[in-house]
Design goal:
41% strand; mainly beta; globular; Immunoglobulin-like; five-stranded mixed β-sheet; 2 domains; four-stranded antiparallel β-sheet; 2 helices; binds copper (II) ion
């Protein structure tokens, strides 16, 4: 039996070396009730050329099993006093065919994310944080296709609204928190928080722009895997 190369892996499996914290919280957000119908977007001439199919607002995007998309799920309390670094590539807030993509995303405080114009028309990226948070309003003209500008926010805020001053139908929302333990639900309402969550007791909030916030408490050990269900009511 070969020992050297596999020793660490074997030791971890049989529990000699403690595994790194790997609590994992996944789950699903479902919508209860019937949401109001979405509003068709009336584009101007230049944006209309980029959109051959009809586009609507994205207030309630509901998938399989009443799963609700674009819910920002994050650890609201339980990580106070701990310091975290943002990992991986800078997130991207794109503008594609005169619509922000994604509609909802998350970043850490002070994490640089990129804002891109992928369209052959001018956009004006206007961040409108709540003044009480300490985050600053900013206005950024992006006249050129392919233009990329970095942005960041120093203070937590769920959510910072972005609008476009050229196109009044364009909105996006960025959740800013002090740690990396957040996710946005996919088209079927599923989410998965990053898998290296420290053991602890947490308040998890599922925040939907229209339906509001739902919270629940969860306690996870270092290697626990827990699945949470949230229900948001249509308003
Ligand atoms: Cu625009």
């Amino acid at each position: 039996m070969k020992m050297n190369g596999n020793w660490a892996a074997m030791a971890a499996v049989i529990g000699i070396i403690p595994a790194a914290s790997a609590a994992e919280i996944t789950g699903k957000v479902t919508l209860k009730g019937t949401p109001p119908p979405e509003t068709p977007i009336t584009f101007d001439a230049s944006c209309g050329k980029l959109n051959s199919a009809p586009v609507t607002t994205r207030r309630y995007q509901v998938g399989e099993g009443a799963g609700l998309a674009n819910v920002f799920v994050y650890v609201k309390t339980g990580l106070e006093g701990k310091k975290f670094e943002a990992k991986g590539e800078a997130p991207l807030l794109d503008q594609v065919n005169c619509v922000y993509e994604p509609y909802v995303m998350g970043v850490m405080t002070n994490q640089v994310f990129n804002v891109r114009n992928s369209d052959p028309v001018m956009h004006n990226v206007h961040a409108t944080p709540k003044p009480s948070t300490g985050n600053k309003e900013s206005n950024l003209g992006q006249p050129t296709k392919g233009q990329v500008n970095p942005r960041s926010f120093p203070f937590p805020e769920v959510m910072v609204r972005f609008k476009c001053d050229v196109h009044p139908w364009m909105f996006a929302y960025v959740g800013v928190v002090e740690h990396p333990y957040f996710a946005v639900t996919d088209k079927n309402g599923n989410f998965k928080l990053p898998a290296d969550l420290p053991a602890g007791t947490y308040t998890i909030e599922a925040f939907h722009l229209r339906g509001g916030a739902v919270t629940q408490q969860v306690t996870v050990g270092a290697t626990d895997k827990k699945s949470l269900s949230f229900t948001v009511e249509a308003k």
